[in-house]
Write the structure tokens for this entry.
Amino acid sequence: MNKHVATAEVVPFRRPLEAVPRAEIVSTMAMHLVAAILHDDLDVTNDIDVIQTLLNTPERFQSRVVLNHMDDAKAEAEQTIIAKEMGDI
């Protein structure tokens, strides 16, 4: 006798974005930007590339969230890169 086996993909639990503090959203975005700068040579002066990078993260941020927090995330990413170059990290 054949039995039906569920093959649903398991999706990790995600907190609703409203439950995530703004600082954590900005920090997460900044980490993705740092990785893209170091590994993909992302040009942070090109806003379209930055927006596309943040939209394509595993968190799948909505466009409104990206636009609201992008400037702070870019600033934090640049500070992280500077600290890395100075050897503080």
User: Anything to note?
Assistant: The mean pLDDT is 86. The longest helix spans residues 63-86.
